[in-house]
Design goal:
alpha/beta, disordered C terminus, 10 helices, 10 strands, four-stranded antiparallel sheet
Length: 248
């Protein structure tokens, strides 16, 4: 049996507004997949459905051949699916290290193992210099990295990252890319990377899905997406610089 995270024929409406129309995406173990689209394309709704924070009107979500439908986000995390959020969702009164340790404890680890996993994640993402600082004083970009470190402590089989590079500087972005490659090769974790910056996705991903107005506009290699007329048209006025490989 192929190990994969799969959302098949997902349909989602909020009242009379159809947000997703027959969307199917697949992520194999050890694969990094990009999920792209202009604002309002339906990206966050789709990953919320996959992670269990929203319920689809129809379609199925499965992981390694087992249905995830009906499971809470916490149950999906215990099953091996983790996600990060745009806000980081940190406890501002705690240090970086304490925030990451809590992530490991929340996944059911003992305090000793939680501390070890937290330190490994902090080192992997280059956060050792700020591990004793209060989360309240972190920049937006560093907060994203701490949220990613916390997700990694659950040792997930699949990881969904919601714009992890937003707010990172020119030094932090390459470090993130290196960390993603380490995660993929060391653990075989399959990853979904939601990003506006197609240049970044092209460096990290082997395959991309592009949504526009709730429909699947494109799937294939990142370099092919850069040349696709439908993708270019969908992005006009929203992320054109990103489509030309910029990191802004």
């Amino acid at each position: 049996m192929t190990q994969k995270l799969e959302a098949v024929s997902i349909v989602k409406s909020f009242g009379a507004i159809k947000v997703l129309e027959d969307i199917t995406i697949t992520v194999n173990k050890g694969e990094v997949v990009g999920l792209l689209g202009p604002n309002g394309a339906g990206k966050t709704t789709l990953v919320n459905i996959i992670a269990g924070y929203e319920t689809q009107n129809s379609g199925t979500v499965s992981m390694d051949g087992k249905s995830l439908d009906g499971l809470t986000p916490e149950a999906r995390t215990r099953a091996g699916l983790a996600r990060t959020f745009q806000s980081g969702r940190l406890f501002p009164e705690l240090t970086v290290s304490e925030n990451v340790v809590l992530g490991a404890i929340g996944s059911g680890e003992s305090t000793k193992k939680a501390n070890r996993r937290a330190l490994n994640a902090i080192e992997m993402l280059g956060l050792t210099t700020v591990m004793s600082e209060s989360a309240a004083g972190l920049s937006h970009g560093l907060s994203r990295l701490v949220g990613l470190a916390r997700a990694l402590t659950a040792n997930p089989d699949y990881l969904i990252m919601d714009e992890p590079a937003a707010g990172l500087n020119d030094h932090e972005t390459p470090a993130l890319l290196a960390a993603l490659e380490d995660i993929r090769t060391d653990s075989g974790c399959g990853m979904i990377l939601i990003e506006h910056n197609v240049g970044l996705v092209a460096d990290a991903c082997s395959k991309v899905y592009v949504l526009a107005s709730g429909e699947l506009l494109f799937q294939g290699a990142p370099d092919a997406a850069l040349k696709d007329e439908g993708v270019l048209t969908a992005y006009l006025g929203d992320a054109t610089m990103g489509l030309h490989g910029g990191r802004g």
